[in-house]
Write a structure and sequence with these properties.
The protein is mostly helical. 75% of the residues lie in helices and 0% in strands. Helix 1 runs antiparallel to helix 2, helix 2 packs antiparallel against helix 3 and helix 3 packs antiparallel against helix 4. It starts with 5 loop residues before the first helix and ends with a helix.
Amino acid sequence: MPYSYFLIELEGVEKTIKNLTYDPYVRGYLKHLKTFYMSKNYEMLYYVINKLLYWYSSETSGEDSNSVFTQFPYSKTKEILLELLNETEKLVNDINVGS
């Protein structure tokens, strides 16, 4: 998915994760996700996505196939975050190479 398309997906990602947790750290990451995306702060965006994916991993460790995290839209949210992480990593690397 091209990087510019992720803006369309971010609201769904935010709402889905908010339905899963009241963890103030995770909600704080969500608050900054769109801000860093819009400001093209790729390094901080990469950091926040990593934090969200770490949270997802810690919540799903030991879960069975009937877990809420394996159900749509929760699994789709993780896929979108992984795609955005990969695209953001490319942008961070391009910036670092250009510096």
